Amino acid sequence: SCFLDIWDVDVLKRPQDINKQAHHTHLYSSDFLIVRRAQEFQIKITFDRPYKPAEDKFAVEFVIGPSPQYSKGTYIPVFPTEERQSVWRGRIVETSDNVITMGITTSPECIVGKYMIYVSVVTPYGIRRTRREPKSDIYILFNPWSPADPVFLDDEEEREECIMNELGIIYHGTYDDVSERAWNYGQFEFGVLDACLFIMDKADMPLSNRGDVIKVTRVASAMLNSRDDDGVLVGNWSGDYTYGVPPTSWTGSVEILLDYAGSRGTPVCYAQCWVYAAVFNTFLRCLGIPGRVVTNFFSAHDNDGNLKMDIILDENGKLDRNRTKDSIWNYHCWNECFMARSDLPPGFGGWQVVDATPQETSDGMFRCGPASVAAVKHGQICYPFDAPFVFAEVNSDVIFYRRQKDGTLEAVKVNQTHVGRMVLTKAVLHDGRRDITDHYKFPEGSPEERRVLEKAEEFGCQREKASVPQSDVEVEIPNLDVRVGDNFDVTLQFKNNSDQRRSADVYITGTVVYYTGVPSAEVLFKTPKKVLVRVEDYMHKLVEQANIHFIATGKIKETGQIITAMKVITMHNPKLIVKVTGSPRVSEEMYVSVEFTNPFKFSLENVDLRMEGPGIMPFKRKHIIAPGTSITWIETFSPRRAGSTKLIASLDCAALRQVYGETELTIQQ
Question: What parts of the chain have a pLDDT lower than 50?
């Protein structure tokens, strides 16, 4: 025939083919071609005869969504000749007999999602187009390797960690006694990419906004919580998880995302802050946006949008629980994602805070960010989005007020260093931690820090202005290493900086708290220098994170000054022992055992065990109604791919939460 006929279109989509290798998408467990924008990929087209550039006219057409339009960026034709080009570039890389290899470069701001591909040829009788072939659909993602893409991150090791690493460590506990939990982000597992795109569908996000990383991350921060939009996760801080999975039980994001997408958008129960942050991190890395989970220790959750966390004492210096409304979370996890901010002045690109935990509404919805970390550090909190809220989380002052007999409040002590004490994220490419507090603030007490706080006040953040006399007596509660089930002593250390004798009435309250600082039960209340805390005082009251928050407050008799000390004691749980046997090779059968011995006097019931490992074992769970004193659970698995990875396990029941174990292993090809 005189006009070209198309015999075959090959999108070169196997993991070992040039496209997935060059685009760093070879780890996705997917039968489709996945490429990154602003970087060339190749397809091979077989015609019924050799292609003649001078007379044959053809185009490769990309279509996304139900009603494709060129003006909306949802219909894009790509042409092979230099004279005729569209927003995506095309070129012929090589010709061999009837087969041509075509290179296609998408634009750096193109829509991220799943496209259909057609080849069309101009004939004397009109345009002939290939039939729809679902197997050659193409996913196009953000590209942190391309300088043209707003998510470009110019550091190969950072990219390796914040895009390619499926395993993470999330920090919790307290700043001077940090605990770690391993997490399987699983961004390359089967079905996860579709689930992440489904989240944007569920939000009714216009396709034309899905190439804009600022809009994508802002929509996701609203969609990962179920408040006001039937998003992915239902928050629950009550301690009662009868109708879902306790937040402490999850070991990874995959099960959550697949459940949500598989039910076409039924929110998954339950989450607390690290679960929101971990699943958000999977979403970011999966779509190609550099992401990491960060933990802020002593995070202010302010109820009235100022820089003051108010703790109310009665006239004797004793804590007034009913009137103390603001809460300081022992820690709070959020996400940072990396992007240029063309909507802000220069210098505010780079890492941005996004937070999906529903705390406050922003523009009428529960969402937060993206807020520039550099803007937070410099007090430039007028820039979108939600920078004042993040600024308060790391910079609030803790103010102790004494309530006088007539009901007025007098500021008696200001602690400017307690909140935002430390911000941590996982180190690059190894399991250590990285302290990034200095990304968020200047050193405490430095002139820069003072200028930043003044700048924030100009933008409307109120601070406590009262000057409070420095007390000449200091008190502190030293750190303790306590295992759940131990008796322990809490000691008060006093330091008298005056040259006179000082005596004090001191109250110490120990409160079992949720990590959000919300009290659950009081443990003790006396005024000695040393308090014995017995197991029977706290064991039946402990909530899942096993924190006891001690506040010592008192009044110096001679001067009337108020002294205060705060300490969170995190109890350490027993660990699971995870062991692997068998030959560590791809597709070989291996065994894993999870063992636990109950060290307590009471028996456990309705125990849930979970385990998973990226690339080697999909998540599994086991329910044991009445285990004896020891539990052994054995499963088989066959690794899907080579490389070093981890198996992560958790044990959870109403009487004992947050019991974890893990083991590292390297799989040979």
Answer: none
